[in-house]
Structures
1.
Amino acid sequence: MKRDAVESERNNNEEVSSVGNRWVFVVMFGVPGLLFIFIAVPVIMDVYNIHSSLAKNIVVFTLFVILMSVLVTVIVRGYRKRRSM
């Protein structure tokens, strides 16, 4: 009985860490971040009349950091999955 519970837990863990779920992670965290950068930040900059190149560089850098963090997360999760097999 305990062995069945362990096998069931193992199957659940395999389903949670499947390849498809990495893309769900990207969609849940990457897409809202990109939408915020591309929609909300320019609106906020216009509302507060910020048109300096420094502010635009900060926005581009923030976009780069978000994209790289999502990319690294997807790569690391894929590497861990392949390594555990």
2.
Amino acid sequence: MTDSKPLEHPEGWDKKMHYSTLGWCWCGQSCPCCRALVGDTLGACEICLRKKQEENVSRYYQKQFERFMKNIESQNIKEAFVPKEPDPEPEEETMYTRIKNRRRG
């Protein structure tokens, strides 16, 4: 008897169920951390890969993913994430700032 692979995800399936068998991960395939922990790459699910063959991935997202995976593979987790800079304090609203903002926008 041959072991046939399913062609479609089961009814009621959603993307978060990709790694639900791990027991601790409910992020789904969109989470690069979960994919890295199991050695998965973007689109490694055979069913999803078949569905996505005709769709092109944006070059921007492809570069972001490659940059992230390069740092994950070298065990450099801190470099994989870009720290968010705090927003600058807003200026006090005066006649000068209103004129300056009006010229910008």
3.
Amino acid sequence: MRRLNRKKTLNLVKELDAFPKVPQSYVETSASGGTVSLIAFTTMALLTIMEFSVYQDTWMKYEYEVDKDFSRAIPHPRGHAHLAALVNHDSYNFSHRIDHLSFGELVPGIINPLDGTEKIAIDHNQMFQYFITVVPTKLHTYKISADTHQFSVTERERIINHAAGSHGVSGIFMKYDLSSLMVTVTEEHMPFWQFFVRLCGIVGGIFSTTG
């Protein structure tokens, strides 16, 4: 009795099949059909490899928000260094080189724009100015997670000549400003479900086109 009910159920399912199968005896193979199948499978393999490379690739997502952390203090020693009383004015030479300048934790991949900067003074009464904007940065990648800072800089230099109207004090000056915006950098990649859906779309589309 159970077998009879099972056969009836299978027959009912077969009647609901929206894709009737052609008997094998009616199927005829040909060279053109084999060529189309070969091209289809080759295209399918190439697109699958390309999709897999895209799935393995990562990109950086940048988000900006107001920095609400006011609890951190910047360590800064008190005092100023004056060379006027120690060196003759005509002997001033403000040629300099900045080997490295960074703010916060050292993180691979973050570019410090002043590293390796070298300036040659052409006059003993010359001013060098660096206007630095420091941006708090949170970095989250698959390898590291750190709270650090990035900065941008604008450089200016000029010769001090009061007779020509160029006033100021010769020297090297670094003026920095803390940005009120915080940048969050997150490394992301394509989720597996999206990769699977795209893969099914490739396979199904090629079969539908060549079938």
4.
Amino acid sequence: MFTRLAEAVVDPPAAVTDAAILLRRFNEPGGAAHTHAGSLAEQAVSDAAELTPEAAARRFAESAETLRETTAPADTVIAYPFVGSTTLAVIAETALTEATVHLLDLAAAVGGVEPSPQALAATRDLLIAVPDPTAAVEVLAGRAAPDAAVPAIR
């Protein structure tokens, strides 16, 4: 995925410049999280059946190395499915959130390392920005039922 970033660069401006907006669009009724959930789940099960722990660790290490070596500015605009285009900063923020959520899944399932405090804080900050602000405040203040704002993502 990360090795194809150079091929994805497009002319500005980006259609989406905020990670919360990207996640909101993906997760709205009729969004990709709903319309593609079945096929994504099937693909994940298929991929997982063939993925060894060593290969998974190698994939994470290689992806991290590729990102460290990427010298493109954060405001570089790339083509992105379902929204047209976005910036590398939005993709990085979204990827950190995805990795953090899935690392929590893994830690709960088999134990081991948990996300860093910085990753958890960044993920919390992004996830709280996805739902309507008034609904989120009402839920967090105990004035509304949780389903008014959560889950923020599917």
